[in-house]
Amino acid sequence: MRRLLTGLAAAALSCSAASAQTPPSPVALPQADVHVVLGWQNLLVPQPQDRYNAWLNGIFYGGAGAGWFWTDHLKTQIDLGAGTRARQYRYEATTLDGNQAYQSSRLSIREQNVSIGQQYQFFRNQLFHPHVGGGVELVRETRTEEFDPLIVYDSTGRVTRLVTPARVEGPTHHFLARAFVETGFKAYMTPRAFFTSDARLMFRGGIDEVLFRAGFGVDF
After folding, report:
1. Who's near 156: CB < 8 A, 6+ residues apart?
2. Does pTM top 0.90 for this prediction?
3. Which range is least confidently modeled, 21-30, 103-112, 135-144?
């Protein structure tokens, strides 16, 4: 009996000591993060008459951004970025004095953008965080177009006639606003450093830009 009472007393003391210990603190959640990304930009630039060759694909893109966490799942993010210059060959058929002519040109286009959006991030204290989001993108678009001479062949007189000489229009700057939706993920390599990737669709009347990005960031 004495041994039993001694064992019960030891067990009680052990439980009391365990309950007096401070419980482990939860994993600290980030308040903000920053990142740098590289990617591929695809722009819809309508042709004068050819709607099948309107996409400019594979434009190299670079950017950086920062985000602020309001809750475990909601984050506001601001991004800055720019694509390399893309070129598009364009042509337009026209009729002058009953004679068919073709106006050809080479368009050079480049975009710089800033965007602000809201993300919903899934999971808490996980190594992998998918997210969805949306927001607004503000764009500064620079265009330069080089026109070839417009020459008409007069079938009646069997001579060619110069209608307009070669010319260059631009550079011109346009400011655009687009809505966007996105989906992506963060995958942690260390407790603070992460790999990030996302895909964005931009809208202005319809989808006119598709952007794929990947990069690295760190939490604060």
Report:
1. none
2. no
3. 21-30
